[in-house]
């Protein structure tokens, strides 16, 4: 802190005859804020996000029943939210940098609050999806601004620890909220929106003590990649819609949208190559970064898909809906165990070795899972097994990617795993719901009962996931070892594959 800033803080604390007292500016000062001071803001922002995403997945059977729609349509409640996050995270983060993180958070959280209140009263499903898209965009911006704000206010030596504390809160929510959401949905699934709105409003209240941290003047003009944001939205949205109309079936419209998606993806590629601050930094998306980006996207397709089908499966078998929430909570607890185990394992063994064995065990467990749908409890137990086996890649790949680039490029690559995961999630729900609907209709026409038709459709879905894991393993084999793994068993300097760029390539 400069002398002038130090004098400003001290002037707030003392006068000659007045007892010193601590002010908000002293508590929330740059590079000197303690983690407990951040807790209220972190808690309520994360609560609205995790409760929304968790509860909406559990509420889909209720939504389908109320609006008389099937899974291929109802999944758009979640897809719209995730599509918004994938398309707007980085552009809105840049906008927050320009406005100031605190000012941007006031804007984003206010829009979230109004959105949740509005969506609670809306009776049209498609209008609800549109509002949920706006809410997802605002959450993406608020999250980026919150992370940047905490990073600036945290003591430099404690910043990484603070981020780990926040990850622990996220893990705790993933364990607790599915169980709580189950009982809220039993009262009314719309109540979720009201609770999320109150949480967003409380986030605004907790933001009151904060001020925009002082910014250093920069000669570089802030650039927002609106072209990339628009084209990735059109590309991913058209692709998702093509799968939806394929299941209706309206083949001509599905084909047209698929063609639009391909064109938009090509435009996105060329826009990102020349963008100053791209959504995806394609100029550093080379081996082995490109392989890990693909693994991250495929991992999201599989993880989101098995989470999506769980409440659908419970509803199709006419079981107590609370089972889905309970097993999702247990799966969250299982994933929590891995957050402690994986770092210890990767300290001793090569990242590639750990991932290869994880994919092999996943292939075996998914191979058994294929035959599980015909027995309810066998399916539920195998759900936990496949979650355990497949959790390692999703947890380990993001930090591996960041460590494969020089330190000065880490910020450029840090957004890639999240963007890939969100795109994978949106595609996953559309493909999964399309397969279930189309195959179920085909099996029913061939004389099967609805429940048997659904179970056979589940076998096909799980078979697709198994094939994707095999493809992931093939991509993984093209990766190598990292230079910072020289202390691990099996390290071979000749097998190092690490991204190396000069300043001209990144410019």
Tally of discrete structural domains:
3
Task: Tell me the CATH topology of the largest domain.
Answer: Growth Hormone, Chain: A
In which range does the helix fraction lie?
over 70%
Q: State the major sheet.
A: none
Which CATH architecture of the largest domain? Up-down Bundle
Q: N- to C-terminal separation?
A: 32 Å
- What is the chain-wise order of helices and strands? HHHHHHHHHHHHHHHHHHH
Describe this structure in words.
The protein is an all-alpha fold. It has three domains: 174 residues, MFS general substrate transporter like domains (Growth Hormone, Chain: A); 50 residues; 227 residues, MFS general substrate transporter like domains (Growth Hormone, Chain: A), CATH 1.20.1250.20. Helices cover 75% and strands 0% of the residues. The chain has 19 helices and no strands. The N terminus and C terminus are likely disordered.
Task: Show the helix and strand layout.
Layout lengths: L2 H9 L12 H4 L7 H33 L3 H4 L1 H24 L1 H21 L3 H29 L5 H29 L3 H16 L19 H21 L4 H24 L14 H28 L5 H27 L2 H19 L6 H28 L6 H5 L1 H30 L4 H27 L26 H4 L1
Looking at this protein, list some descriptive labels.
507 residues, mainly alpha, Growth Hormone, Chain: A, 3 domains, 19 helices, 0% strand, globular, disordered C terminus
